[in-house]
Write the structure tokens for this entry.
Amino acid sequence: MRRRALTWAVPLVLVAAGCGGGGDAAPVATTEVSMAKSYRFDPSTIEVAAGSTVTWTNDDNFTHTVQVDGQEDHKVGRGEQVAIAFPTPGTYHYVCTLHRRDMDGEVVVT
Ligand SMILES: [Cu+2]
């Protein structure tokens, strides 16, 4: 893939804010999210185009779920997947309802 040239007049000052944790991570452009060992969504914040289908794969040793706020819960066993379509732009928060404190993420639909 061709790398886009950095033509923006943005000073390359990477703010090492050390925000500790994935919650504030910059969105990753992907439609694939791993439920990684242990009790994590990786990457936790993704960005997709409207109309995309996002697939979560359970690579952990425990059953997890994916529940987008206001939508139904999907149980995902070890080695299983769930695919959810995102037709409308917006920011969608989701959780694993079994491990709410540890596992949540966001899908930014553009
Ligand atoms: Cu979980």
